[in-house]
Write a structure and sequence with these properties.
Blueprint (H helix, E strand, L loop, with lengths): L1 H50 L2 E2 L7 E2 L3 H7 L2 H32 L6 H9 L6 H11 L6 H8 L13 H9 L3 H13 L3 H9 L4 H29 L3 H7 E2 L5 E2 L6 H11 L3 H29 L5
Antiparallel strand pairs: 1-2, 3-4
Helix pairs in contact: 1-13, 3-7, 3-8, 3-10, 3-12, 5-11, 8-10, 10-13, 12-13
Length: about 300
């Protein structure tokens, strides 16, 4: 009896040692990622949160100011302006991107000759450098020599000046269509994962194309649409590169102008041009909260329209 108990105890210790070695090995393998997250994500976030309660200009030591940055933020007219422009851009570009991404996926989901070529053509713009395609669009949108205004002129329509406050956000919304190929690929993968048996059974019951789309395709695609919606909101609220390149003022050291200013551009101007790191950090955390609230709202609404197959 004693020998049996001792043997069981030895086996238990041996098992614990093996488990410890496995866990240690696992932590060693993922340690580069853990260190990277701590150094380049969590660490900067904590630092930024601290700075948001200080007055800090990089040169002088940070001075604790409490909630002063947040109080100033809510009375800053440029914050309201940049939020309006961001909401305008996101409110139109995200639904438009969802619709066009799904529409393109339906188009290229056909089993016809040469369809792989067209899938590639539609997807390539999504992996093009943002700076490169923004410079291209800057030329296309030129009031006097741009191709878009030239085409409008052929139709008898006087093209607008796209870089004025009235038209610059619609111009960016039009530019956002350029990257719809990324959403198309994700939707295409979702479409090809729908069991064909569902369509076959519905066709036997006499369902037409419209009913197949509404009763089978869209419900089965709702998890993919949900994913694209969340990622679209996050991406649109954090839009920066295209706005920076398009609105940079060469006569003012490349600082983006206030025309078409979105939230991230205003954050950049404060933190990296005026060196108001404390105020810029407060702006960043307010944006984080806004995106968090929007994302949670979408997640809460998902139970009413997202359907997962058993």
């Amino acid at each position: 009896m004693t020998v049996t108990a001792a043997t069981a105890d030895q086996r238990s210790r041996l098992h614990r040692r093996r488990e410890f070695r496995r866990n240690l090995e696992g932590w060693l393998w993922i340690s580069p990622w853990v260190i990277g997250v701590l150094l380049f994500t969590i660490g900067p976030m904590i630092t930024s949160l601290f700075w948001s309660f200080t007055s800090y200009d990089i040169v002088n030591p940070a001075k604790w100011t409490g909630l002063r940055n947040y109080i100033d933020l809510f009375s800053d007219p440029l914050v309201a302006k940049s939020l309006r422009n961001t909401a305008y851009f996101a409110g139109v570009s995200v639904p438009l991107g969802l619709f066009l991404g799904l529409l393109l996926a339906l188009v290229v989901n056909q089993n016809v000759r040469g369809i792989s070529f067209w899938r590639t053509v539609y997807y390539l713009p999504a992996i093009t450098s943002t700076v490169a395609y923004t410079l291209l669009w800057r030329f296309l949108l030129d009031r006097d020599y741009g191709l878009i205004n030239h085409v409008l002129g052929l139709a008898g329509i006087k093209g607008p000046s796209w870089f004025t406050p009235r038209w610059i956000i619609p111009a960016f919304i039009m530019m956002s269509i350029w990257g719809v190929g990324g959403s198309m690929i994700i939707n295409l993968a979702g479409l090809q994962s729908i069991p064909t048996e569902l369509y076959d059974a519905a066709k036997v019951d006499g369902a037409g194309g419209g009913r197949l789309l509404w009763n089978i395709t869209l419900p089965m695609m709702s998890p993919v649409i949900f994913y694209n919606l969340v990622m679209g909101i996050i991406g649109a609220m954090q839009s920066f590169t295209a706005f920076f390149v398009m609105t940079s003022d060469a006569s003012n050291w490349g600082v983006p102008s206030e025309t078409g200013m979105v939230y991230m551009i205003y954050l950049y101007r404060n933190a990296f041009y005026m060196f108001r790191m404390g105020y810029g950090s407060a702006l960043a955390w307010v944006l984080f909260i806004i995106i968090l609230v929007l994302t949670l709202f979408v997640f809460r609404s998902a139970k009413h329209w997202v359907h997962y197959s058993e």
